[in-house]
Amino acid sequence: MSAEWLRWVRRGGPGERPGGSQEPGPRSPSPAPAPCYRRPRFLRGGGGGEESPRGRRAVRGTGPERPLPWGSGYAEVINAEKSEFNEDQATCCQISIRRRELGLEEDKEWLILCSTQFLTGYYWALFDGHGGPSAAVIASNYLHYCIKQKLEEVAGAITEARPPMHVSGRCVCDSDPQFVEEKHIRVEDMVVGALENAFQECDEVIGQEMEATGQTGGCTALAALYLQGKLYVANAGDSRAILVLKDTIVPMSCEFTPETERQRLQHLAFLFPKLLDGEFTRFEFPRRLKGDDVGQKVLYRDYFMEGWGYKLVEKADLKYPLVHGHGKQARLLGTLAVSRGLGDHQLKVIDTNIEVKPFLSCIPKVNVFDFALHDIKENDVLIMATDGLWDILCNKEVAHMARSFLAENRTDPHRFSELAKCLVRRARGKKIGHQWMLDDSREASYDDISVFVVPLHNRDEDC
Amino acid sequence: MSAEWLRWVRRGGPGERPGGSQEPGPRSPSPAPAPCYRRPRFLRGGGGGEESPRGRRAVRGTGPERPLPWGSGYAEVINAEKSEFNEDQATCCQISIRRRELGLEEDKEWLILCSTQFLTGYYWALFDGHGGPSAAVIASNYLHYCIKQKLEEVAGAITEARPPMHVSGRCVCDSDPQFVEEKHIRVEDMVVGALENAFQECDEVIGQEMEATGQTGGCTALAALYLQGKLYVANAGDSRAILVLKDTIVPMSCEFTPETERQRLQHLAFLFPKLLDGEFTRFEFPRRLKGDDVGQKVLYRDYFMEGWGYKLVEKADLKYPLVHGHGKQARLLGTLAVSRGLGDHQLKVIDTNIEVKPFLSCIPKVNVFDFALHDIKENDVLIMATDGLWDILCNKEVAHMARSFLAENRTDPHRFSELAKCLVRRARGKKIGHQWMLDDSREASYDDISVFVVPLHNRDEDC
Fold first, then answer.
1. Start and end of every PPM-type phosphatase domain (chains A, B) (predicted)?
2. How far apart are CA B111 and CA B107, in angstroms?
């Protein structure tokens, strides 16, 4: 991020506009010591006030007083005292992209000089914090600014049929258009690149802000952007987005956890063994090894293996594994349950000097859905949720609930908000004694749960 | 590879058995300076002798005198003077896996002590050499030995319903079976692991042999193994295997080239900039940049980007790119057209001290096809071929040719061999003047072309 832009963001940017769903201005970059229950801006002023509903875990959702773009629904519930704070954060807004004047890119005044709106995007994002809410709060305030800035940097290219070799449009080499065509570089690749760069920039901002204010922690980030008839879903962490269409479910993200990224993590430890400081082993074993295993040949995997082999156990193999545990219990360096996300710049493995950050990636995987290639039906929706929902419900169950709820509530103007609440309630379960239980007697989610339900049918009405 | 085993291999192993299609014994590990046309062992003695058919590029194939397992067909043609030698090599054999006596694993004499055949596998492999035929020749002699050895190391596990935590079967921890089950470790994962380890070991053997004999070069490797009702296809390079079934085509490999592995290669250069020695840039641009581009913002990609962005061009960006060119012209460090394979331990970028090997990977990607889940029809085949075929024919064209040829030649006992020849002939084209041309007036392949056609229907008759 340019120092220029960071200063501008710190000064307060263009200021907040009327209407909660319009691109909210960045708030003070150093969040005040968070109250135990900090809610997304677009929920404030709604029923329920700011008090902590901890004990009863009331489900909060969007109401009629502050409609979100496209009539999207949102609902959330705080965790069951799993942590001191609510750790999920959400943002939803329009993103107005302005075309920069050529040659003025580095000028502080460009916002004033070229204020004409150029393109409008729509943005929904979820952030699941850990080690405190600060990183999630900063990310929810800034990621859309980073995206806006990165899109404006390529604004000249994204309305062309093909992006030009030079952003200026100048042709240094006669065959430049041919080179671009041969590489199959399309406008959507520029948007994907902008999202990838925006996540990286937001991560830098978080690092600077957390260091400056002495705060710690990190967060996952799941961001959906609608632009020029395409939906881009960028994900770094273990939240998830799916499209529930009439006849199919389209996964729009995949989870990045120590298990799904084992080979990348092990490979880094192979290349830079010092990162483990002699405290961890990079090998994976089905369980933590013990003294009795030494001298035996046990199942193992190294960085280059998708399959398994047998390894003669040495004493060094008794160290704690870089990636250990299974499913929700899987941990990176015994510390984190995710392998991608924003923040965590200061995080060290407890009682050691081992830094976790080198193993984390802030780069999202971006999936693109082109509406021009699909016939979108009235009840088709995008569902985004943090892991609190997906730990309890699989894609099929969520899709089934969405389809039947929307079919039964065709005329309710708040049906997408109601569906979001319904999904959150289902995963939260009911309190029976001291436990949160599902209807089928399984344990419910004790985690924060946040859900967006975005209707896709009338998406261009707002534009 | 254990020094023990290498010495054993060098001594000549168990010796060759009668019958060309039985596991051939390893030949002298240092191939005599290769004649210009060295043919796979199973083709020798067939019509045509050993002379170079260079000028007319005659198509050679398996005949009735030396049948391959399952009646597989094979055909090949030499390149059109693209290089001094034929650079493709092929192997086809049975692999007999013996169970090792426990505790005798390190004993030189185990082969004698436990000579009972335990499992039989079938093996087909293609190797496409570059920088000389030596690496391909060694790999065609040794990879199946490495695979055999790695499978024997896990022999105790691959006939169990689930592999045991300890290869000895001893249970150190009561819940060991549960840990293995929770990790979903199956028998096929052990075979995949054995293949991954075998490729790595074969690469080490090649490195040692080439250094000892002062030879250079490398090769791609595509190996198919049938074992216990499953087909495993391991690939490192740009050869390809597909299953042509009655109603579908199942790709069994993907190509590893500087283009398909751009992000891995760029990431390594980002982590270890010294590998480029100041001579290359790790950034990708649509074309090689020139002086006029400096100071402009041009399209680029870095290691973390699947999308594209614009980068302000500095002087350092004018260096030759780590990955450059498109399609068949794409090169790693301006040198190699593949990013995975065996050998190339000594390869340096011309006129520099830059080593290519750190960027190469010898690890295959293994795909598994379970015959129990499919109803295999009479004309269903596995087709494996080097890039010489796939540069000219796409999967659909090959599948169409296979289906129509086999339907029209139901009774010919050599139809799989004939189909292989037919595919090779199609990609080689005809010589018109000084050029090799296809029927549709496009240029034909000037490369070596090697093709296996493996019938799948009566696969267990040989067992």
1. 71-456
2. 9
DSSP annotation of B86: -
**Is the pLDDT confidence value at B12 over 50?**
no
Residue B37 backbone zone (phi > 0: left; psi -120 to 50: alpha; other: beta) = beta
Determine the Cα–Cα distance for residues A254 and A271; give it in Å rounded to an integer: 26
Of the candidates A168, A179, A297, the beta carbon closest to that of B297 is on: A168
Which band of pLDDT confidence, cut at 50, 70 and 90, is reported for residue A27? low
Neighbours of B262 (CB within 10 A): 22
**What is residue B6's DSSP assignment?**
H
pLDDT digits (tens, 9 = 90+) for A328-380: 999 999 999 999 999 999 999 999 999 999 999 999 999 999 999 999 999 99
Give the closest-approach CA distance of A234 to chain B in angstroms: 12
Mean pLDDT (chain A) is 87
Q: How far is CA A285 from the centre of its chain?
A: 30
CA distance B105 to A9: 66
Chain segment B355-367, per-residue pLDDT in tens? 999 999 999 999 9
A-chain CB neighbours of B308 within 8 Å are 163, 185, 189-190, 192-193
| Interface touch B194/A290, C-beta < 8 Å | no
CB contact under 8 A, B168 and A297: yes
Chain B positions touching A361 (Cβ under 8 A) are 304
Burial of B325 (0-12, 13-18, 19+ CB in 10 A): middle
CB contact under 8 A, A305 and B193: yes
Closest Cβ–Cβ partner in B166, B183, B287 for A297: B166
Q: Which residue from B390, B405, B100 is spatially nearest to B222, judged by alpha carbons?
A: B390
B287 secondary structure, DSSP code? S
Q: Report whether pLDDT(A125) > 80.
A: yes
- Note the pTM of the prediction, 2 decimals: 0.90
The answer to whether residues B27 and B13 touch, using CB atoms and an 8 Å cutoff, is no
pLDDT tens-digit readout, A248-261? 999 999 999 999 99
pLDDT at B90: 95
pLDDT above 60 for B113:
no
Convert the pLDDT of each residue in B21-77 to its tens digit. 556 555 544 444 444 557 787 887 554 444 455 568 899 998 888 889 999 999 999
What are the residue ranges of helices labelled H in B154-238? 176-182, 187-213
The average pLDDT across B423-427 equals 97
Closest CA to B388 of B419, B330, B428, B440: B428
Higher pLDDT, B219 or B24: B219
Distances (CA, A) of A129 to A126, A338, B387: 10, 11, 48
Say whether A70 sits in a helix, a strand or coil: helix
What is the pLDDT at residue B37?
Answer: 59
A463 touches A135 (CB < 8 A) = no
Which residues does chain A have within 8 Å of residue B196's beta carbon, measured at their own beta carbons?
A: 304-307, 309
What is the SS3 assignment for A44-112?
CCCCCCCCCCCCCCCCEECCCCCCCHHHCEEEEECCCCCCCCCCEEEEEEEEEEECCCCCCCCCCCHHH
| Residue in B170, B292, B361 nearest the CB of A296 | B170
In a 3-state reduction of DSSP, which class is residue A38?
coil
% of chain B exceeding 70 in pLDDT = 84
The C-alpha of B132 sits at a distance from chain A's nearest C-alpha, in angstroms, of 28
Alpha carbon distance A454, A463 (integer Å): 15
Tokens representing residue B296 in the block = 């402009």
Q: Say whether B369 sits in a helix, a strand or coil.
A: strand
User: Letter for the amino acid at A203?
Assistant: D
CA–CA separation, A400 and A36 (whole Å)? 34
- Number of other residues whose CB lies within 10 A of the CB of residue A51: 9
Name the burial class of residue B11, with classes exposed (0-12), middle (13-18) and buried (19+) by CB atoms within 10 angstroms of its CB: exposed
**How close, in Å, is residue B286 to chain A by CA atoms?**
6
Q: Quote the minimal CA–CA distance from A284 to chain B in Å.
A: 11
